[in-house]
Design brief:
The chain is α/β, with parallel strands linked by helices and 381 residues long. The protein is 46% helix and 10% strand. The strands form 3 sheets. It has a 5-stranded parallel beta sheet. The protein has a two-stranded antiparallel ribbon with strand order 4-5. Strand 8 and strand 9 form a beta hairpin. Helix 3 crosses helix 4, helix 10 crosses helix 12 and helix 16 crosses helix 17. The protein is elongated and about 80 Å long.
């Protein structure tokens, strides 16, 4: 008597349609999870970073498409989101999609939607990512992976601001700002016949190249501090930050995986370290002896190689040392930091670079700390 009620659960079309929808949800959830592990905005103070940031700001106030280029892991989605938040579309949706993560035969339906009955399993019409991003911004990562049909539809969207869902003949108008990204040279893929030349020219109206992390090393302390704060919150613990040796390794490493690799290594360090302990070098780079000191470089094969150097030991103080006086004063750590930095700036005649050398910090790291004091410390370059 109940066979009609249960019949729908055995319909092939319904199951296939649900699989497509589930795949779409999984992709969105992965994007949301990844978003928890990246800065809300790009982080850095180096000149090369400032140049890129200025380019992105100019792109934000324009109406044209933007093409972000750079190695894997340099933060192209972070920059795309920054462009969106600085634009007049900031209150509208920001939709990100990794074109390489969607099977080629599904990418067109995923981007532009599908009409009921378009193929086996399409039991209902479904909007695509472009419709969800209407009036806002869509970020197409690894755009080179688009199928030829999807490239043609994207070109039409850019030229005519219209498209049709897969299997539909209804023309839909759309108002979407497109930001594309690729870690490949798109001009080379055009020559190879893998990417449409006319689409490339449409996307490449405003190119922005994001440099690898090894070309902006002075930003590393800022990035480390930023991500450690995020992971402290995520894992409900508070470490003392990187040990001197760990920071040396982080600064000298070539970071082939760029910011994404830095995030992963710092998360491992937080997991491996107890609260109120410093993050040791071997928590970041397993297998490195913490009893010594290694100068780090990358071999021609891309492997991490180290040259052992004896590490200088911190001097031991008696029970009546200045550190005991600091503890007995029960001053907050922020106050102690403020006092030390203020004294260093005074000794250095308010020259940030000189004060940074006195404190054993990079200029960018000290400049970042100075911003926490709301202008209490005056300084010069």
């Amino acid at each position: 008597p109940d066979h009609e009620e249960y019949k729908k659960y055995f319909e092939v079309d319904s199951i296939i349609d649900q699989l497509y929808e589930l795949q779409s949800q999984v992709t969105e959830l992965r994007g949301a999870k990844n978003a928890d592990n990246v800065p809300d905005k790009p982080v850095g103070a180096s000149q090369v970073f400032q140049n890129v940031n200025n380019m992105a700001s100019k792109a934000a106030v324009s109406k044209v498409s933007v093409l972000l280029t750079g190695e894997t892991g340099v933060g192209k989605e972070i920059m795309a989101h920054s462009i969106h938040t600085q634009s007049d579309r900031s209150e509208q949706p920001f939709v990100a999609i990794n074109c390489a993560a969607i099977p080629p035969d599904l990418i067109e339906a995923e981007l532009f939607g599908v009409a009921k009955g378009a193929y086996t399993g399409a039991t209902a019409s479904r909007a695509g990512r472009f419709e969800r991003a209407d009036t806002g911004t869509i970020f197409l990562d690894e755009v080179v992976e688009l199928s030829p049909r999807a490239q043609a539809t994207l070109l039409r969207v850019l030229q005519e601001r219209e498209f049709e869902r897969v299997g539909d003949n209804k023309i839909r108008k759309i108002d979407v700002r497109v930001i594309a990204a690729s870690n490949e040279d798109l001009a080379a893929t055009v020559k190879e016949g893998r990417f449409r030349a006319d689409l490339y020219y449409r996307l490449n109206v405003f190119p922005v190249h994001i440099p690898p992390l090894r070309e902006r090393r002075e930003d590393i302390p800022l990035l480390v501090e930023h991500f450690l704060e995020k992971f402290h919150t995520l894992y409900h613990k508070k470490t003392l930050g990187l040990s001197n040796k760990a920071m040396h390794l982080v600064m000298d490493y070539n970071w082939p995986g760029n910011i994404r690799e830095l995030i992963n290594i710092l998360e491992r360090g937080i997991i491996m370290t107890e609260s109120n302990d410093s993050i040791a070098a071997d928590s970041l780079f397993p297998g490195i002896d913490d009893g010594g000191y290694e100068d780090v470089s990358i071999s021609e094969s891309g492997d991490l190689k180290t040259t052992r150097i004896e590490r200088r030991r911190a001097p031991q103080h008696s029970s009546s040392s200045w550190i005991d006086e600091v503890f007995s004063s029960e001053l907050p750590l922020d106050t102690i930091e403020h006092t030390v930095i203020n004294r260093a700036m005074a000794v250095a005649d308010n020259n940030v670079s000189k004060a940074a050398r006195l404190l054993g910090l990079s200029r960018a790291a000290l400049a970042y700390r100075l911003t926490k004091f709301d202008g209490d410390i005056t300084h010069s370059s």
